[in-house]
Specification:
The protein has two domains: about 5-105, Tetratricopeptide repeat domain (Serine Threonine Protein Phosphatase 5, Tetratricopeptide repeat, Alpha Horseshoe), CATH 1.25.40; about 120-240, Serine Threonine Protein Phosphatase 5, Tetratricopeptide repeat (Alpha Horseshoe). The chain is an all-alpha fold. It has ten helices and no strands. It has helices at about 5-20, 25-40, 45-60, 65-85, 90-105, 120-135, 140-155, 175-190, 195-210, 215-230.
Length: about 250
């Protein structure tokens, strides 16, 4: 006798495979069909339903159905959050990242670097990547110069944390701020300024806690521990604190 749960699992796996193979329309249809089937099922299928909304969101984005991509991704995010299950945190983190991607994709390209507009997702994402690249090439001062305007532009958004869903704050752009603070802290640490580095990394850790970002908590707690050990040895790791700036 066929196990109905196993059959559903296999169909979800197949839908995921369709997405990975670039068959976005087929994935979109398969996920919708499964979602319709699960709608009438009991609560134990709720995590699967959330995954299907997530698949629909990813597929819809690839098909340029940006309205449905946004709605489905938000539905997946909030359904996982409502289950309040730590084991599902990787899903929650993934859907929040997908939400940022969808919001960036929906922005008009001409909004990039428009000083008359608030910081766009596209600008924030591009500048974080640029700053990380500069850090990787030991250009710490230049990386700091890229990151500080982002910090200044995003910090006012922290006031809305706690007034809405922790998975999706009032202005979801605040979710980029721990990355900005953490990378700033790393740059200052590699520049040989442990006190400033520690303050920035501690701020990244605290903000990650407020946002429910468990990965950020783990990363920045580890960074703080390593900074403390290196400071006790009176030197930065990897011997790069004195690397020349170009």
């Amino acid at each position: 006798m066929t196990d109905p749960d196993e059959e559903l699992r296999e169909r979800i796996v197949t839908a995921n495979q369709l997405f990975e193979e670039g068959e976005f329309a087929a994935c979109y249809e398969a996920a919708h069909a499964l979602l319709d089937q699960l709608t009438a099922e009991v609560i134990r299928y709720e995590a699967w339903r959330a995954q299907l909304f997530g698949l629909i969101g990813k597929s819809a984005l690839q098909l340029s159905l940006s309205d449905e991509a946004l709605a489905a991704t938000r539905e997946a995010l909030h359904r996982v959050e409502a289950l309040n299950d730590d084991a599902l945190y990787p899903l929650l983190e993934g859907y929040r990242e997908n939400l940022l991607t969808v919001l960036a994709a929906r922005e008009p390209p001409e909004d990039l670097d428009d000083p008359s507009l608030p910081l766009s997702h596209r600008t924030i994402r591009r500048d974080i990547i640029r700053a990380q690249s500069l850090t990787d090439r030991f250009r710490f001062v230049r990386s700091i110069d890229v990151l500080e305007p982002l910090r200044d532009g995003l910090t006012p958004l922290t006031g809305g944390i706690g007034t809405s869903s922790s998975a999706e704050p009032d202005d979801v752009r605040v979710c980029y701020l721990p990355r900005v603070l953490g990378l700033l802290g790393l740059n200052w640490f590699l520049r040989g300024e442990p006190a400033q580095a520690t303050d920035l990394t501690a701020a990244a850790l605290e903000l990650s806690r407020r946002l429910g970002d468990l990965t950020g908590v783990r990363v920045y707690q580890t960074n703080l521990t390593q900074m403390g050990r290196a400071d006790a040895r009176n030197g930065a790791p990897f011997g790069v604190s004195g690397a020349p700036e170009e």
